Amino acid sequence: MDQSGADTECLQYNGASLIKIYDKYENDHLQTYLIVKNANDRVWLGMTCNESTVAASCNWSYDRGTAAEYNNFGNNYPNVTKGACVYMKKDDKKWYSSDCEQRRAVMCEVPQTSEDPCPYNYNHNCYFPSDVNASFADAVRSCSNMCADLVSIHSALENRYLITISDIQARWWLGGVETPPIASVEKSPDRVFKYCKIATFVLLGLLILGVVVFLILFFVVPKHGDQSASSTVVPSISTIGSTTVTKLATTTKPSKHSTTSKHLPTNGPITNTTASGLSTTSPSNRCSLITNTTFLFAYSNDLQSSLIQKALGDIKTFIVNPKITTFANNRFDTIKEDPIHFHGSKDNFTDSVNALLPDSKLKLPNIKDGSNVLNVIEKFLEQPTCGAIVYILMKRLPDTVDVTDLIQELRLNHISVFPVIDSAYIGSKDQSIMCKLAHTTNGFCDYQIASRLENEVYETMWIVSRVHVFVSRSYQVSGKGSIKVPSFVRPPQGNENGSMGLVVTYQNHARDTNFKALNLTITDDQNKVVLTGQTKSTNGNALLKHPVLKNNVTYQIDIDYEYARTDWFEKIDVRMYSISPPGTWIPFPAYQNVSAVRV
């Protein structure tokens, strides 16, 4: 296609642009790539020239510099008499001028970015669309509440990307304010998009923290009634930096042990607060898929400190979804039970975990003693947070008890449990009790050997960071057979290349010799295979995959399994998680019996 059409084609790929070649290494690499791919001999570059034989007159599109920095023009080029546009020739790696209407091959580029659970990820920033309507003042206030600012666009490429992330035709609020002699900026009645880009201001944060502490010490002012919104409405999109914690939850829930309602501070950290000291509103009134929530990291005192610190690093990297506004930690299986500590920032959360690493002096005296992890979950439920994630690292299993009431309350609050367990467990012999909590709350239960636990934590934390379950099916099987999971459409998201988290657990206990093999295939509605997976000897009781699925496409998961015994039931749980929420809460699954086939 011609260069203009090629540029438009690139725009469809998350705001990409025609390729820029930065040095000889990249020029050589592009030639190799074109040869390996058997691509067209001539490929457009994102460059136009103004003068013949003057490389400095050739500009990379979108203010990316000039050819004076590096070029590989052929002899007597650039030559604007042949045209202002530039292509590279595959056979000699040289650059030549061309009429811009000529048809050439297309190659696009986007800035390098980080893998993170953001629907719109660009150049190490994450953009989250919102259908909340707001005036300029409300847009500023909304961003401020998220520790963010309205976006300031720093390049033509960033501007180009922002254009691509919404289909709605509108104007956008920007974070710039005109300086004198303009005295003020008036509120616009027009429809706009707002963008928030996260920014952390340390000095301002310290000042605010000081003010909050002063107010907490001297004034207790409960807030009553609804706050009315501005009558001027506009659609909005917020953006949040991918490594910064967002605001604290501004609504809280009533403790089942309290008749009065306390409120968390709306600014500053919630540090070293025990579970019984918080209160909340009934989840049935306010619980939704996008309600601000809590991530609880609970870890056994029987584990190595290095594993806990590794998990902490993975939490800081991956758990960045904006609905997670509070972080909590608890060290369990100690002689004296620790409280649950709640924090409004990852920094405070990090400090707390590092201060409460496993301590051999606090270990339970007998390796046969059952874990007190169920007490941790019960304490957490004293101030239940709608949609919370409970991620547990453990080695010691709890004694067998009836967890029916515990499950019921977890389900009532849509709290999912994710235990990751050392296969060389101690304590109780009941391997299934933690898996039961996971299965019944749309979580998953992962057993792995100690030498592979760090990698398992990395993999599971990445999947848990997807936050929203949208496929949850469970099967009871034996022998050899196959399962056809009901077809599904994944929740729509802006970045179609953002992967899902798929977990298939094939035993609700540590892997044993009864398990032989499991294979899965995902196909689309055109019967095209988009992902395959099979278990290996290094897998514990779970197969973890990261499929890339498209919007508005129906998918099918087919599973083939094999166990040694036909007289013994095993349990297979299928879970898939997404950054974007489904339209409603996914039902909690019941086990479906699948007929056994004699091996």
UniProtKB/TrEMBL annotation:
- Where in this protein does the record put region Disordered? 251-279
Q: Which parts of the chain are coiled coil?
A: none
Taxonomic superkingdom:
Eukaryota
InterPro entries tied to this protein: C-type_lectin-like, C-type_lectin-like/link_sf, C-type_lectin_CS, CTDL_fold, DUF7154
Record-level GO BP terms: innate immune response
**Domain C-type lectin: from-to ranges:** 1-109
Q: Which UniProt keywords apply?
A: Disulfide bond, Membrane, Transmembrane, Transmembrane helix
TM ranges are: 198-221
Q: Where is the composition biased (Polar residues)?
A: 268-279
UniProt cross-references to SUPFAM superfamilies, sorted A to Z:
C-type lectin-like
What name goes with this protein? C-type lectin domain-containing protein
Native species? Caenorhabditis remanei
